Amino acid sequence: MHHSDICIAGAGIIGLSLALELHRRGLSVTVFDQAQPLGEASTAAAGMLAASDPDNPAPLRKLADLSLSLYFEFLDRLHAHSGIAVPFHTSQTLQSQISSSSDTLSREALGRILPQLTPRNHHFTLLDEHSLDPRNLAAAVLAAVRATTIDLQPNTKVLSTRSIDDSVEVHTTQGIFHAAKFVNCTGAWATHSTLAPSTTIAPRKGQMLAIAIPPTLSLPLVVRTHGMYIVPRTTGPNKGRAIIGATIEDAGFDKIVHPADIAHLRALAADLLPALADAPQLEVWAGLRPSTPDELPFLGPSPDHRNQFVSAGHYRNGILLAPATAHVMAQMISNQPTAIDLADYSPARVLTSSAIAH
To answer: Where is the signal peptide (predicted)?
Structure first.
């Protein structure tokens, strides 16, 4: 019989970060993934730690700020376990605002920061915000997991779970496992089995591309508007490229890349930085963001299943929120007070009609 203290479904950045935190606390952990670890949204992301993004829902800020406070220690622990350093690529973001405000940068200030920017009708402010390469982060997380006794089970789909007294029976394609507690971290694939019946997590498709930054353009920071971002890679094997994204589509689990959508993203980027118009295209791809109706994650116990928890629905901020999610979920699973109030993220929360419409 397979038995662990904790079984986790989903080996993305959320599931594996939680596994490492639980292991650090002395618990035995088994992690299942229906395919390969870190093969979905975790490595499709751009890597912005965008706590100040004005498109984020306001209640997300306390979780985002907690995560930022934990991030340096999180990366240091990954380095210690994996031997892989995960550097930050940028430390500032030019953020477009809907209208001018007291912190809007003048044209002269913009010219000093990024001389080749053509702001058009955008009003920009400067944010202190880091970015990293999610593929680099994924390599470090996976190597850190493999350096521990965490039992990682790829190509193993969780079919169903059943709470029995003080344990959970986990039925998978590779057999039955038992654990004291179970956590659903399957992102866009999170099902109703561990969620309140009235809630849902749905995939929201994002197409994006990578281009080679022209030698004539110095791009030391992120540029972000409401519908587009440009994220440079400034170090490591991907130095000299920039990520341009991303569409937001309700397309189910379709990950087909459409040339017209990629061309539109390129046009938006080139409108701000004309030097990108003819930049060589290096790669295109699409990822599936796990979205909830109010764009806040579900973090907490399943309302209907004893000893089962949900940690999913991080939408566009899985990379940002991984350290805080691991921290508070491990506290909750260990029956400790959580660092912040998690009521806004409860799987049992009432979703208003306005949130569902949004």
So the answer is: none
Rounded to whole angstroms, the Cα distance separating 8 from 253 reads 22
Tokens 């930049």 locate to 279
Q: What three-state secondary structure class fits 74?
A: helix
User: Global pTM?
Assistant: 0.95
d(CA 87, CA 136): 9
Cβ(70)–Cβ(321) under 8 Å? no
207: nearest Cα among 134, 273, 260: 260
Amino acid at 229: Y
Q: What is the CATH code of the structural domain delimited by 90-130+202-291?
A: 3.30.9.10
Determine if residue 104 is left, alpha or beta; phi over 0 gives left, psi from -120 to 50 gives alpha, anything else beta. Answer: beta
pLDDT at residue 192 in the model = 55
- Among the ranges given (240-244, 277-281, 352-356), the one the predictor scored with the smallest mean pLDDT: 352-356
DSSP state at residue 345: G
- pLDDT tens digits along 14-61: 999 999 999 999 999 999 999 999 999 999 999 999 999 999 999 999
CATH 3.50.50.60 describes domain 1-88+132-200+293-358: yes
**Which residues, in sequence order, are bridge partners of residue 298?**
312
At 69, the amino acid letter reads S
Domain ranges of the chain: 1-88+132-200+293-358, 90-130+202-291
At residue 193, the pLDDT reads 53
